[in-house]
Structures are given as structure tokens and as C-alpha cells.
Design brief:
By secondary structure, the chain is α+β, with helices and mostly antiparallel strands. Helices cover 51% and strands 15% of the residues.
Length: 381
């Protein structure tokens, strides 16, 4: 159920001020420390940011997709690591449970996920399994009332701090996704360990690490959905998550455009602000046009999803276009700032590195192209 307009407007205003007054001033600190301060995480919990997509019955805000993407746009106006801190709770780490969990599973976990008391994570990718996500090799062998899970998951967002993992593991011998099941796996189970966080190109403060399972006994009651439904659940989760990521891309792009305009109106060359030079204007115009197009596509797709329509193709198109768009905007921003754009002081080079990941995770641009083409052919055009 959507919030009333006044309440939602107040939420947007609060998030916008929080980003502007609390998050943007400490971007360089987060980059240097590769960590988000504890007091900031506490404020994010108090604002309800960990429970945006979880129903009010379980302590969340219960936002519609249209509302969620607008909040995500606001969160995109700062270092993506801040959004990532809540992102798995809002998206891929919780939505399998929201979509396919039993009442008992939801009651046990969702209130603590919504409050941010626990952090969730989504464990699908493996050392030899990325885009071919139906080829997971992690095994789950039934043994009485438990499944024994063994395997390694790689590049798992928030693995270093997660309390609960949604793990995709192979329970059957069928090839592809039909033999994959989904499990809720608490961090505390014996045999589960976390690798050292990876050193990354960007998005410092948001950690990824391996999740290693060595004969982990997971209660059969922790299976999400029926045996063999894990891949289907994962794809539904990713369809939704792609809209959220698309919205974050829009927020970053709008931030970069605003920074470019501010810089270009102050920086002078050849006796006048560079904003008055037509080739600078052309880069600003291209960036603004593409950001507006992405915003329109994402908002329209979110509204269609809220109306119960099939948006598999549209979600893929949103992710593909928005993630590629923000890469182009970031590149132009470096060009407009010139030498200053290459220097850390202005933060442009940091965002340039940060946004590169958007074209890879939750489905690469190439995977989105395949989905778009497949769905377009299926629909007959």
C-alpha cells in the first residue's frame, strides 16, 4: 500500500536533507577509511532505510516500487557505498524471503531486517559461476531434517557483516536452474566462514567477500519455497533489484550533472566561464537528456510493476540503459572538470570509479541485452 502523498513527500525531504547534510560531507572519509561510521549507520536505521521494501506488518515502510525508486534516486546523490549499506536489506538480501517465505520464516527474520538489527546478503555468484547463474555448483544434500551445504560463493555484497544469507545451492541433478534451491542460512551455523574483503576499484566502504560453506547443516525448514524453485526465486529478486539499481544510477547522474554545472559556471577559460563554450554545453546537454530519459523509463516501469504487469523486459532495459548512461555521464564529468576531474579533491574521479560496477552486478549489460532481446522476440516486437 502506498504512503499518502504528504507522508511520502516528508520522507523524500528527510532523505534528501540527510544525504546533503550528513552523507556528502563525509564521502572522502568513507573513501579513506573504507568504512561507514557507526553513528551514520545508526541514523540510517532510525530513518527506516533498512526496511523500505518490507511490509508495515513486519516493521518496514512497505513502499511501493514507484516510491522505492524515488528514494533510491535520492540515495544515489552521494557515494554509492551508503546505499549499499542498506541495499541488501532492501533488495536482494530480503526479497526472496518477502516473495517466497513462509509466515514463520517472515515472522522470524523480517522485523529484524527492517529495523537494521541484522544485515542480510544474497549468495548466488561463485568462482566459476557469474552470468550463467543457473550453473551453481554449491551442493545441498538432504540428510534427515537438514540439508548439508558445501561450496564457495564469491563477491558477496555485505558478506563481512551479514547475519543471514539467502544461498542458492544445487539440490537436484537436473541441468541448469531447475536443480537449484534457495536457503536461509544464518551466519552462526558451524562450517560457514567469511573470506577477507576484496580490494576493489571503487565503492569503498561497501565490502564484498567470499562465503565458504563446509558441510553446513541447514534446517530443512529454512528452505525458501519448494525444492528446485531457487533459480526462479533468484530471477524474481533480480528483476526487482534491477529497478532499484537503475534508480541509484539516475541519482548519481543527476549529482554529477549538478556538480558539472556548478564547476562550469565558475571555471573560466578564454575570458569567460566554460559553461558558455558550446562544446561544454553539448556535454551537459547530452548528460541531462540521457538522465531524463532514464528517469522516465524507470518511473514508468516501476508504475507498471506496481500495477501487476510483467516487467521482465522493462526492468532489464532500465538497468541496461541507466547503468550505461551514468558511465557516460561520469566520463563527461571528468572531461568537463579537466585536470581537476582526475584529482581526488573534487570527488569526480571517485564517482567515476564507483559507477563502473553498475554495469556488472545484478546482471551485466550483456545479460540485460539478452533478456531484452529474448522478451521482445517472445512478445512479437
Amino acid at each position: 500500500m502506498a504512503l499518502d502523498a504528504e507522508t511520502f513527500d516528508a520522507l523524500i525531504d528527510t532523505v534528501r536533507r540527510f544525504v546533503s547534510e550528513k552523507l556528502r560531507p563525509i564521502e572522502a572519509q568513507v573513501e579513506a577509511d573504507d568504512a561507514i561510521p557507526a553513528d551514520i549507520l545508526h541514523e540510517m536505521r532510525a530513518l527506516g532505510l533498512f526496511g523500505l521494501s518490507i511490509g508495515e506488518d513486519y516493521g518496514g515502510l512497505g513502499l511501493t516500487m514507484s516510491e522505492e525508486v524515488r528514494v533510491a534516486i535520492e540515495l544515489g546523490r552521494t557515494t554509492p557505498a551508503f546505499r549499499s549499506a542498506v541495499g541488501t536489506n532492501v533488495g536482494i538480501g530480503s526479497q526472496g524471503l518477502v516473495m517466497a517465505g513462509t509466515p514463520e520464516q517472515k515472522a522470524a527474520w523480517l522485523p529484524r531486517i527492517a529495523s537494521g538489527d541484522i544485515v542480510t546478503s544474497f549468495a548466488l555468484t561463485e568462482p566459476d559461476v557469474g552470468s550463467d547463474s543457473g550453473a551453481v555448483k554449491t551442493r545441498a544434500v538432504k540428510d534427515g531434517n537438514v540439508y548439508r551445504l558445501s561450496g564457495t560463493k564469491r563477491y558477496i555484497t555485505n558478506a563481512d557483516k551479514a547475519d543471514l544469507f539467502t544461498v542458492m545451492a544445487r539440490t537436484g541433478e537436473e541441468a541448469g536452474g531447475r536443480g537449484v534451491s534457495a536457503f536461509l542460512v544464518p551466519r552462526t551455523l558451524p562450517g560457514l566462514s567469511i573470506g577477507e574483503p576484496e580490494k576493489k576499484m571503487g565503492q569503498k566502504g561497501a565490502k564484498v567477500a567470499d562465503v565458504i560453506m563446509d558441510d553446513v547443516e541447514v534446517p530443512a525448514a529454512n528452505m525458501l519455497g519448494a525444492e528446485g524453485e531457487g533459480f526462479k526465486i533468484a530471477m524474481r529478486v533480480l528483476d526487482r533489484g534491477r529497478l532499484h539499481i537503475s534508480a541509484v544510477c539516475i541519482g548519481v547522474a543527476e549529482r554529477l550533472i549538478a556538480d558539472c554545472v556548478a564547476y562550469a559556471t565558475e571555471r573560466k577559460q578564454f575570458g569567460k566561464p566554460i559553461a558558455e563554450h558550446q562544446l561544454i554545453q553539448a556535454m551537459i546537454a547530452d548528460s541531462k537528456t540521457e538522465a531524463l530519459a532514464a528517469r522516465a523509463l524507470v518511473l514508468e516501469t516501476a508504475a507498471a510493476k506496481d500495477a501487476g504487469k510483467d516487467v521482465v523486459m522493462e526492468s532489464a532495459a532500465s538497468k541496461y540503459y541507466a547503468s550505461e548512461m551514468v558511465g557516460r555521464v561520469a566520463d563527461r564529468a571528468v572531461q568537463i572538470f579537466g585536470g581537476a576531474g582526475y584529482i581526488a579533491d573534487y570527488g569526480i574521479e571517485r564517482l567515476y570509479r564507483d559507477v563502473r560496477l553498475f554495469r556488472i552486478y545484478e546482471g551485466t549489460s550483456q545479460i540485460q541485452q539478452l533478456i531484452i532481446a529474448r522478451e521482445t522476440i517472445k512478445r512479437g516486437g
